[in-house]
Write a structure and sequence with these properties.
Blueprint (H helix, E strand, L loop, with lengths): L4 H12 L11 H9 L3 E5 L3 H5 L2 E2 L3 E2 L2 H6 L3 H7 L5 E5 L5 H11 L3 E4 L4 H6 L4 E2 L1
Parallel strand pairs: 1-3, 1-4, 4-5
Antiparallel strand pairs: 2-6
Length: 129
């Protein structure tokens, strides 16, 4: 066995734990335009109490906890378009990365946003209560 074999195993293990999704490089103006043109949807992955306190107008709601629990593919098909971008957001930009990893496995074009809910409202995304 080569003296480098343990390093190769470690490298493969680390690569296997890498995130499937990174925050999108799309600008917020691009996000707004794509949503307005029907080329994309916004999905809020915050929990229900957070959603009830306010959410973005027109956004769909799929809490990360539901995705982690194993939301079935049929339910996702009813909520999400098969084609087009799906912009995910949460409160601060971390939960949407985990949600993106899950939705990517279902074949969706997910684009997690770096900006959280409050920053999106400040950037001009209309809020709905």
């Amino acid at each position: 066995m080569s003296r480098f074999a343990p390093l190769a195993v470690l490298a493969l293990a680390l690569l296997g734990t890498a995130r499937a999704a990174d925050p999108t490089t799309d600008t917020l103006d691009t996000v707004k335009k794509n949503v307005a043109d029907g080329k994309a949807v916004l999905v809020d992955v915050r929990e229900l109490a957070e959603w009830k306190d306010g959410h973005l107008k027109g956004a769909k709601h799929i809490p990360l906890s539901e995705l982690k629990a194993g939301t079935d593919a049929e339910k996702l098909k009813k909520l999400l378009p098969e084609k087009g971008a799906i912009y995910l957001h949460c409160a601060a930009g971390k939960r949407c990365l985990a949600a993106a990893d899950i939705l990517k496995k279902h074949g969706y074009d997910v684009r997690p946003l770096k900006d959280g809910f409050g920053a999106l409202v400040k950037a001009g995304f209309p809020e709905d209560k």
